[in-house]
Amino acid sequence: MEPESAVTTCYRHPAVESYVRCTRCERFICPDCMREAAVGYQCVECVREGARSVRQARTVVGGRISGPPVVTIALIAVNVLAYLAEVLRPSIVERFSLVGARMLGPDGGYYVYMSPQPEGFRAEGVAAGEWERLITSAFLHLEPTDGVFGLMHIVMNMFSLWTLGRVVEPMLGRSRYLALYLLSALGGSVCALLLADPGQSSLGASGAVFGLGAAYYVVARRIGADMRGVNRFMGFLLLWLLLSAGLTSWQGHLGGLLTGGAVALAYAYVPRGPRRTPIQVAACAGVLVLLILAAAIRVGGLT
CATH 1.20.1540.10 in the chain, residues? Predict the structure, then answer.
């Protein structure tokens, strides 16, 4: 009588016969547990362990390699939705645009900020505690009622955001890109708060767009790109800054440009290593603290 042959089963599914071994751990695996490898098959656990040991690709500044520019698309969507909200309810502009300090009189008109507050008047602006205006104003644009320039305001900004964003976002990685965009927007608002008439209303994504332009220039130099096209673009951006004087908030453009450049320098020139990300986070936090401190000092002078 011939001896009965031993039956081997999958290590994860003991009820299933298996005669194939994992080429890495040599345990028997069934078809459900097989994962094709360069040679033979591997089990689920060995594939997972191998994926953990593979070094993830990073951008030049240490961010994760990303696919489509989803953050840029999301930012454009938020700006467009905010614009549609303005069209449906124009009062949104007066409530959330950037204003340093002004008084709303009982007749509905706006007046220079006064302290103490006269009876029947209401204070508005950052000096009145409406700090959210520093960010919300960067997502608002001129209304269609402001003429052709009203519609062109958002069209030009969104076109510029798409043109720059789809290039800069893959360079930085999504989280670093979003941080730079928001800090540039805040930097533009703070610069406008410091240099512009405190009763003047300003709004628009231009400050953040100028910050992306500065980041594009800094990172392009860092990676040794052909600077001819980059320099032409930066020349156009600076020309836009000069021509914007008297039309829009050039102070916001300048603030976004300087803030974006500072953050991009921190991203691009921190040495590689385990401390790179903490140093970059600390640099962003430092820029944020400086901007808030500058705004607080300005508000203190207004009140």
Answer: 70-302
Other CB atoms within a 10 A radius of the CB of residue 7 amount to 8
Q: What is the pTM of this model?
A: 0.79
Structure tokens that stand for 57 in this block:
């690709």
What is the spatial distance between Cα 164 and Cα 302, in angstroms, rounded to a whole number?
Answer: 36
Predicted confidence at residue 218, as pLDDT, reads 92
Q: Compute how many other C-beta atoms are within 10 angstroms of the C-beta atom of residue 158.
A: 20
- The token duo for 171 is 């360079």
Measure CA 285 to chain center.
14
* CATH superfamily assigned to domain 70-302: Rhomboid-like (1.20.1540.10)
What count of other Cβ atoms lies within 10 Å of the Cβ of residue 78? Answer: 12
Give the single-character DSSP code of 19.
-
H or E element, residue 135:
helix 133-136
DSSP per-residue letters across 59-82:
-TTSPBP-SS-HHHHHHHHHHHHH
Q: Which CB contacts under 8 angstroms, 24+ apart, belong to 81-87?
A: 82/139, 82/140, 82/141, 83/140, 83/141, 83/154, 86/140, 86/141, 86/143, 87/143, 87/144
Q: How many CA atoms lie within 13 A of 281 on its CB side?
A: 7
CA–CA dist 214, 261 (Å, integer) = 5
CA distances from 160 to 153, 175, 205 (A): 11, 20, 10
- For residues 63 and 176, the answer to whether their CB atoms sit within 8 Å is yes
Spatial distance between the Cα atoms of 60 and 219, rounded to a whole number of angstroms: 8
Length of the chain measured in residues: 303
| Per-residue confidence (pLDDT) for residue 197, from 0 to 100 | 86
pLDDT one-digit tens code per residue, 155-186: 888 998 999 999 899 889 999 999 999 999 99
Structure-token match 């593979």, residue found: 54
